[in-house]
Amino acid sequence: MLKSLCANRLSRTAYLWLGFIALVLLPWVAGAAGGNYWVRVIDFALLYIVLALGLNVVVGFAGLLDLGYIAFYALGAYSFALLASPHLPTQFASIAAALPEGMHFSPWMVAVFSIILAALFGLILGLPTLQLRGDYLAIVTLGFGEIIRIFMNNLDRPMNLTNGPKGISGIDPIQLFGVSFAKPLDLGFIQIPGLYLVFYLFLLLAIAVAIVCLHLQDSRIGRAWIAIREDEIAAKAMGINTRNMKLLAFAIGASFAGVAGVLFSAFQGFVSPESFTLWESIVVLAMVVLGGIGHIPGVILGAVLLAVFPEVLRGIAQPVQQFLFGHVIVDVEIIRQLIYGLALILIMLYRPGGIWQKRGGGR
Amino acid sequence: MDILLQQIINGLVLGSIYALIALGYTMVYGVLGIINFAHGEVLMIGAMVSLSLLRVILNLTSDLPGWLTLLIVLPVTMAVCAGLSYWIERIAYRPLRNAPRLAPLISAIGMSILLQTIAMMIWSRNPMTYPQLLPSTPIDLFGSGASITGKEIVIIVVALAVMAGLLFLVEKTKLGRAMRATAEQTQIAALMGVNPNRVISITFMLGGALAGLAGVMIASNYGNVHFYMGFIPGLKAFTAAVLGGIGNLQGAMLGGLLLGLIESLGAGYIGELTGGVFGSNYQDIFAFLVLILVLVLRPTGLLGEKVSDRA
Amino acid sequence: MTKVKASKVIFMKSAIVLSAATLLLAACSKGGDKSAAAPADAIEVKIGHVAPLTGPIAHLGKDNENGARLALEEINKAGLTIDGKKVVLTLVPEDDAEDPKTATQVAQKLVDAKVAGVVGHLNSGTSIPASRIYSDAGITQVSPSATNPDYTKQGFKTTYRLVATDAQQGPALANYVANTLKAKTVAIIDDSTQYGKGLADEFEKTVKAAGMKVVTREASNNKATDFKAILTKIKGSKPDVIMYGGMDATGGPLTKQAAELGIKAKIVGGDGMCTEKLAELAGEAVVNVTCSEAGMALSKMAQGADFQRRYKERFNSEVQIYAPFTYDAVYVLVDSMKRSNSTDPAKILAAMPDTNMQGLVGNIAFDNKGDMKEGVITLYDFKDKKKTVLDVIKM
After folding, report:
1. Which residues in chain A touch residue C22, judged by CB atoms under 8 angstroms apart?
2. Which structural domains are found in chain C, ordered by start?
3. Element (H, E) at C169
4. Domain that holds residue B190
5. Does some domain include residue B106?
6. Do residue B223 and residue C233 have CB atoms under 8 angstroms apart?
């Protein structure tokens, strides 16, 4: 038995090292295989992982169906857009006078700020909805998401706060210790393109968020959430403060999205209300549900698959159809939506725990 | 003053449309206790199907009076929608009756997406014109300056007629009794000889037929259809049903009309009320704000029914 | 195993899955991108084209692509020699689905594919975010149809366009309203999109400067179906003219509902509304509409009829709107190639400011921002329920 234990530990360590090296080399591999385009795709995939993990706290752990989750992402994104772009100084002479060098708050400060802001809005969403059951909660959260988006789209009158549908551009890129992630990093013996630096940063964030989620899962809070999810009345009877636990779920889930939003804004350099539609909320929900609701590795898998999938589809759907039929019969967009719809239904019918569910059958 | 009257008329017409859809929602909720997310999509399919049928008929002959053509197309459309609803329930909801409560919700969302995509594939993503078969010339109302068109009168009348018909069905017929029994106590109803599955299927089919009717009415009123046309009215109609008291037929009607009035008057007057800070561009969020307010302040709705906190 | 290690293992597993998946899929999709090989003694030069090929205006996007393709094929057929070497042009068409995020992604794709220049995008809302990527890479971007003034105001050297801007379209409409319609009061509605709001804002500026009164400014959204509430409010203010900034899908129903409410005011709109389809969507009421296009009308172009014939022969469908502009855009890029005697994107870019050529759309020369020096606005009305040219205004 001792021998098998040793052998096990050895292969585990080897596994770990293999994985670590794979992750470090991934941007280069992706870049070589498919150019910067694919590096961008995996950068976004990492942001989606953070979003999915955040929504998993609300939907997977606490069992609260949130269809407006992307609103917190929007809040984070717009926070950074307003605090680190020429927009506000151009619109308001008073700000331009007070800050002659323009608004260039660092993403880290804004990240902390957006955690608080998003958590606050999470509470604002949570408070009126504490008594609501599943279906009502879903629609109210949907409404909340839409309300945020409509406000972003229309707050350019009477004062131009968000620049409405035009969005805010010219947002500062990510900076760390004076190194801008928009330009390649010259280490003398090797040049690391900005997109790769972004990958490493996002990877660190995703790992950090995953670790936090793992700790939450095995903590008293996590167990309280599971109790609420399974049977709220019994949970109350056991002395769990369901009100505070639910609010905590909303707040924590929201804060993850807030941070992700800040980084998204800095990465893309441009935000507009169109990036924060109901469909995006549903995509993140699909990642959680399809991947493995409540199961962290499953959620990560779901996020990766669904982030990469549309790009793959884009690459093969057209040529395949051309080859088979001579012309494109069905749009890539339509195929994508078709698969989303079917997948949600089929997974609920046949494998409700998701693709990678918790051992012991998923719930 | 004529502007106020006109806005009220607009609100009543819009409200009748919401009421028509809300009646379907509320019926299904009363019997099954779930919100049929895909209801709005059934509405859209109804409009699309009727469009295809109309095109066929109008191609063959354009001599029939407009309302007659519509009358021929309507039963077929409603039958198709009823059938569609039946299958939606069988495939996406029935197997999940005992599953954890998130499952049927997510399945419903998936069904909604699926139906939209199917519509996109069959009828394309472009908006399409719907033949104007009902009179649309404005009729001046008592010289007040406000006007209403023939088709709008039809819509209000149809909504009222449907509500009356449903009330009769539910209160006075055997089927209605079975529906009420299944809604209150499914297992006991089964013991009493009611077949719950059959009742649920019939309720869904009825709801679907109503959605189809609503789809044709909306398409006739606005003159165009597209694959997304069911989603937003569906959400707003759900709000209306909650506002009136979900599970309550008169509540659905009342809620629908009220919501229509709130939206119309809101969009018309919010600019003046807020001094220009908020304008008609916020029209869409009225429904959501109403929903949140109702659920927070008076969860049972205006005419009150159960909003049980089932786990 | 500690919690930290557990999470690391989970991550490593996903990492491996991710890497394997990415490698496999990237390799597959790259493999699918093979373009026709140029003959051995010629060099292949790629020209990118981006437009929405999926979505509600896919038919317009395809139209744009066709125009570019027609130009490309003609140039290849006639034979192109740059710097003593034979050049074969290849079109790299991409779809941005009218979405800003997708637009930046396909822009990156084109930059990676090392195109010499890009014709696109169709919408302002996609051209603007993508322009940053092209600017960073130093690749010329010629938009055939983006009308938002901000596109060329970003300070990039790479942004060019072949249409007039909303800063010209708005005033053109406003002048028509002031001088021809002799209106004193105007109501303005926009659809809360970048295009619609932008156009309405420009219109409002000129209208106010001309001394007309804006009785009310309303907003809707690009998915709205019921305008009765807004229109009723407008009816109460009794404007002479209603201006709508938005597309035909919403402008049509708006026109129809205005008539149903008994509103007698004329309705004016921009190029988004100015389509053949408007007559269908607005029904009988379309006779109240006057709209503008930010470019020369096909029927007024000197070579217009000939272009239409060749287009129809090649693609078996009618020109929608902007095909002549993408056609010209390709010729503009090739013209820069010829003058700089190079296929290097940097040299093409450097030669762009000196462009001075005759295209389908008229004389093409750019000001220092990349806008057309001689923009043209065409006004249309729908007298017999068909779109007919009303006036051509040189800006």
Report:
1. 26, 29-30, 33-34, 38, 42, 308
2. 42-164+300-364 (3.40.50.2300), 167-293+378-394 (3.40.50.2300)
3. helix C166-175
4. 2-130+148-297
5. yes
6. no
Give the pLDDT confidence of C233-251 residue by residue, as tens digits: 899 889 999 999 998 888 9
Chains that touch B (3 or more CB pairs under 8 A): A, C
**Hey, how many other C-beta atoms are within 10 angstroms of the C-beta on C34?**
8
Q: Is A169 helix (H, G, I), strand (E, B) or coil?
A: strand
Q: Is C391 in the B-facing interface, judged by CB distances under 8 Å?
A: no
Q: Which residues of B touch A139 (CB under 8 A)?
A: 35, 235, 238-239, 291
What is the mean pLDDT of the segment spanning B293-299?
Answer: 83
Q: In the structure, how many helices (H) and strands (E) does chain C have?
A: 12, 15
pTM to 2 decimal places: 0.85
Distance CA C343, CA C337 (A): 6
Would you say residue B61 lies in a domain? yes
pLDDT in tens, A74-83: 999 999 999 9
C264 CB within 8 Å of a chain B CB: no
- Taking a C-beta distance cutoff of 8 angstroms, is the pair A209, A54 a contact? yes
> Is A22–C128 a contact, with Cβ atoms under 8 angstroms apart?
no
| B141, B224, B236, B273, best to mutate vs chain C, most C CBs in 10 Å | B224
Domain with residue B272: its CATH number is 1.10.3470
- Could you read off the pLDDT of A186-235 as tens digits, one per residue? 777 777 888 888 899 999 999 999 999 999 999 999 999 999 988 888 99
Contact between A268 and C17 using a beta-carbon 8 Å cutoff: no
The verdict on residue B105 lying in a domain is yes
Those residues of chain C that have pLDDT short of 70 are 1-40, 56
Q: Using DSSP, state whether C376 is helix, strand or coil.
A: strand
pLDDT > 60? residue B307 = no
Q: What is the mean pLDDT of chain B?
A: 85
Is omega for the bond preceding A158 within 30 degrees of 0, making it cis?
Answer: yes
C-alpha closest to that of C121 among C217, C52, C174, C27: C52
Chain B neighbours among C 195-234 (CB < 8 Å)? 216-221, 223, 225-226, 228-230, 232-233
Please answer yes or no on whether A333 and C27 come within 8 Å at the CB atom: no
Q: Is residue B286 part of a domain?
A: yes
d(CA A78, CA A60): 27
Spatial neighbors of A16 by CB under 8 A, at least 6 apart, are C5, C8, C9, C12
Q: What is the 3-class SS of chain C, one letter each residue?
A: CCHHHHHHHHHHHHHHHHHHHHHHHHHHHHHCCCCCCCCCCEEEEEEEEEECCCCCCHHHHHHHHHHHHHHHHHHHHHCEEECCEEEEEEEEEEECCCCHHHHHHHHHHHHHCCCCEEECCCCHHHHHHHHHHHHHHCCEEEECCCCCHHHHCCCCCCEEECCCCHHHHHHHHHHHHHHHCCCCEEEEEECCCHHHHHHHHHHHHHHHHCCCEEEEEEECCCCCCCCHHHHHHHHHHCCCEEEEECCHHHHHHHHHHHHHCCCCCEEEECCCCCCCHHHHHHHHHHHHEEEEECCCCHHHCCCHHHHHHHHHHHHCCCCCCCHHHHHHHHHHHHHHHHHHCCCCHHHHHHHHHHCCEEECCEEECECCCCCECCCEEEEEECCCCCCEEEEEEEC
Count of domains observed in chain B: 1
What is the mean pLDDT of the segment spanning A241-246? 92
Distance of residue B311 Cα from the nearest chain C Cα, in angstroms? 32
B238 to chain A, any CB pair closer than 8 A? The answer is yes
CB A319 within 8 A of CB C32: yes
